[in-house]
Amino acid sequence: KKPITETCLLCMCEALSGCNATAVCVNGACGIFRLTWDQWVDSGRLTIAGDSPLSESSFTNCANDPHCAADTLQNYMVKYGQDCNGDEQQNCLDYGAIHYMGPFNCQADMPYTFASIFRKCLKRAELPVKLLKVL
Q1: 28 backbone φψ class: left, alpha, beta (φ>0; ψ -120 to 50)
Q2: How far apart are CA 40 and CA 57, in angstroms?
């Protein structure tokens, strides 16, 4: 089960790292989605092909691989997905809040810079869909 849409993943990556695929970790958060060690462990310690979940580099290798990192986020939302903003549905806004602020703090306001980039990206993605419905 994959609760997060491709568009949502793209907007998370844009808001978190500018989708800069340079293998990098900042304050322990790695890759285009700025995954943390705890998120990776909670999501089942996914690995890239040929890697062992017990190797020293398996976390950073996965976090810096867009597919492995996206699958990690999918698993994380299956485990922790919830309605964070009280609109009675689970969607991308909730997943962004859960990923950025954690599943136990996702009701709090998202930091302005992240929220601004994230919401603008989602609005840009909605525009073609709305246009197609009109046509």
Answers
A1: left
A2: 12
Say if residues 100 and 110 touch (Cβ distance below 8 Å). Answer: yes
Q: Which domains does the chain have, with CATH numbers?
A: 6-126 (1.10.530.10)
Task: Report the predicted TM-score, pTM, of the whole model to 2 decimal places.
Answer: 0.91
Q: pLDDT digits over 54-83, tens only?
A: 999 999 999 999 999 999 999 999 999 999
Q: Which residues make Cβ contacts (< 8 Å) with residue 20, sequence separation at least 6?
A: 32
89 Cβ contact partners less than 8 Å away, ≥ 6 residues apart: 83
CA 22 – CA 24 distance, rounded (Å): 6
Whether residue 132 contacts residue 120, with contact meaning beta carbons closer than 8 Å, is answered with no
Tokens 């690995």 belong to: 47
- Are the C-beta atoms of residues 76 and 99 closer than 8 Å to each other? yes
Q: Are 45 and 20 contacting, i.e. CB atoms less than 8 angstroms apart?
A: no
